[in-house]
Amino acid sequence: MSLNVIILAAGAGKRMRSALPKVLHPLAGRPLVEHVFRAAHALAPDRIHVVHGHGGDQLRARFENSPWPLHWVEQAERLGTGHAVQQAMPHINAQDMALVLYGDVPLIRSETLTHLLELAAERGLALVTAKLPESFGYGRILRSKSGAIEGIVEEKDASDAERSIHEINTGILAARADVLARYLARLRNNNAQREYYLTDIVGMAAKDGIDIGSVSPHNEEEILGVNDRAQLARLERHYQLQQAEALMAQGVMLYDPARIDVRGELITGSDVIVDINVVFEGRVELGDKVSIGPNCVIRSARIAAGTQVAAHSIIEHADIGPDCRIGPFARIRPETQVEEGAHIGNFVEVKKSSVGRGSKINHLSYIGDAIVGSGVNIGAGTITCNYDGVNKHITRIGDGAFIGSDTQLVAPVTVGAGAVIGAGSTITRDAPSGELTLSRVPQQTRPGWKRPVKKERK
Ligand code: UD1
Ligand code: CA
């Protein structure tokens, strides 16, 4: 039985008060609906039908090159959840299994869904229901004395007695497509909201003697939807804490699990230490014994074993070798490669450069479009002048070179291996290996020179 997932995402998301469609708002760095795609994808579906509203272009564009088998279905008019599901049905075979998910319920777990699908295969129809302390606004599950599901009543259509029921409909359900299609065709909108309620299929199926299955989620957050920014923030914190707990379980030392944000994928070796307020984005790999100081941002980077990144450093799209020392206050920009044992110190910016083994750039420098050999020492205040206003040029610094402080290397330029550049030089031509090169206005002393004095007023 092949699986078709239907994701409802036609809501306008007005309460977000945003120009961005609700399901594109990020949770842990990924659009809400992408979390749903990932949970669905884990079930190996044939297709994922996304029911979107008017103007779904932004949504489609965002996932144009995605790895998931997405199929876009427009619901031109928002006539209810039943009507939304109906839009996808012509694309689903009667003998398939259908799973209905919501684009704004991001933390649903594939384990819960697997369980739901097993039950739906057996029974024909199964729901995810939950017992919530606060059930206001949800559809309530009606059960017979023997506990069989008899129907769902929406908040707005419910009697006082029905409103006191704590078991709620999460909205997530799975059904054999033929069963779903049969009851969808019979939906009417004679209710408080004049909508075609997907939930009405449950009562009809029960009447026909279908023994409707139900599963409950592992935790409440799994089934919570996002309607406004406060709810989004709540789920973000929950998700981050879950990730922090998973990292600690793997042996990562987090100084405060409430003060780490992982917006992507973090892969860690053993005995990794992460201080407070660190943000990881994209795919980040940290080798054994890497330590990250407080207030760092690390984006799409690989940091090899034993490297220490000190406070307030930013590393993006870079590859840092083992046993390096980075920061505090270092900025490592994309396409940078730092080799074993190198030091990049405070207020040093490195862009699209390679820094060889054991080289040191410890203070206040800009190194861009440079190829720095091994064992190089770059003094404080060194600048590679890589940009002439139109093009970028390369600076090459050979192994063991020593660049005096406050040097400008005007690219394209090469400093040979073992060369020494005198402090304060502006280097515009290649500096030969093993020699001292400097460009410096000779120092003068004017003996007997007097400082000017203020003229006296008459
Ligand atoms: C729905 C359920 C309710 C359940 C609750 C869980 C129905 C009738 N009620 O109520 O039992 O407790 O979800 O949150 O199903 N959508 C469309 N097209 C439409 C209408 C809705 O795509 O025409 C999408 C929305 O974008 C949203 C989801 O379906 O993601 C739920 O719609 P919403 O109107 O919020 O349903 P509720 O009234 O909350
Ligand atoms: Ca509604």
Q: What can you see in these coordinates?
A:
With 458 residues, the protein is an alpha/beta fold. It has 2 domains: 3-223, Spore Coat Polysaccharide Biosynthesis Protein SpsA, Chain A (Alpha-Beta Complex), CATH 3.90.550; 229-437, UDP N-Acetylglucosamine Acyltransferase, domain 1, CATH 2.160.10.10. Helix 6 (177-184) packs across helix 7 (200-207). The N and C termini lie far apart (106 Å). Uridine-diphosphate-N-acetylglucosamine (UD1) binds at residues 8-11, 51, 75, 78-81, 83-84, 102-104, 138-139, 152, 154, 168-171, 197-199, 225.
Strands, helices and their partners?
Blueprint: E1 3-9, E2 26-27, E3 30-31, H1 32-41, E4 47-52, H2 57-62, E5 70-74, H3 81-88, E6 97-102, H4 110-123, E7 125-131, E8 140-143, E9 149-153, H5 160-163, E10 167-176, H6 177-184, H7 200-207, E11 213-215, H8 229-249, E12 253-254, E13 260-268, E14 273-274, E15 278-286, E16 291-292, E17 297-299, E18 302-303, E19 308-309, E20 314-316, E21 318-320, E22 325-326, E23 330-332, E24 336-338, E25 343-351, E26 354-355, E27 360-368, E28 370-372, E29 377-378, E30 383-385, E31 395-397, E32 402-403, E33 408-410, E34 413-415, E35 420-421, E36 426-427, E37 436-437
Parallel strand pairs: 1-4, 1-6, 4-5, 7-11, 12-14, 13-15, 14-16, 15-17, 15-18, 16-19, 17-20, 18-21, 19-22, 20-23, 21-24, 22-25, 23-25, 24-26, 25-27, 26-28, 27-29, 28-31, 29-32, 30-33, 31-34, 32-35, 33-36, 35-37
Antiparallel strand pairs: 2-3, 6-10, 7-10, 8-9
Helix pairs in contact: 6-7
The site of uridine-diphosphate-N-acetylglucosamine has 27 residues, from strand 1, helix 3 and strand 10.
